[in-house]
Design goal:
Layout (H helix, E strand, L loop, with lengths): L2 H9 L6 H14 L13 E10 L6 E6 L4 E3 L2 E3 L7 H13 L14 E7 L8 E11 L18 E4 L1 H6 L4 H17 L8
Parallel strand pairs: 1-6
Antiparallel strand pairs: 1-2, 1-4, 2-3, 2-7, 5-6
Amino acid sequence: MNLADLLAALEGHTAATEEEVASLVRILRFLQEPADPFARANPKGHVTASAVIARPDASEFLLVHHRKLARWLQPGGHTESSDASAFDAALREAREETGISRFDTPLGRTILDVDVHAIPAHRREPAHSHFDIRYLLTSTEAARDHAASAEDPDRPMRWVSLEGARALNVDPSLTRALAKAHAMLSSLAPVRMEKP
């Protein structure tokens, strides 16, 4: 994992809200501490990577239900030593969790959103923070939108509209990321001309 590249990408990221600014500041400070920011053994927390997966026209987003947290989330998770970057980790996690093999990257490797969130203690794992780096992926593939995740057969997935995600009471930071993705993809959509 290239820490210098991640720092440079984060320093070039423009946060959309005060909450995201606060997360960005926390992540930048965390990455400059001496402990390995990617190691799950770091007691403070670790960098995670996730993907907001959308239809190219922003009509729907793919969410995965997380049993431990009892919430609908975007696909993502921990980085691995084989990941060359946070983007690569997000792409790997998206493929593993959804079973979708092909994604488009409308923003390239540019960061969509960042968030720091608390993870409660679970079994032997103490409470810690996830310093999440979020990217935008799109797909036209028909993922198992009514079935289970590829990684965990007991984990449901669902394609939902932005309004549908809000109805599921997704976390405010995810709502922000979905809204940003919706706005960006809508601005990239081809303009339809009315026939005279």
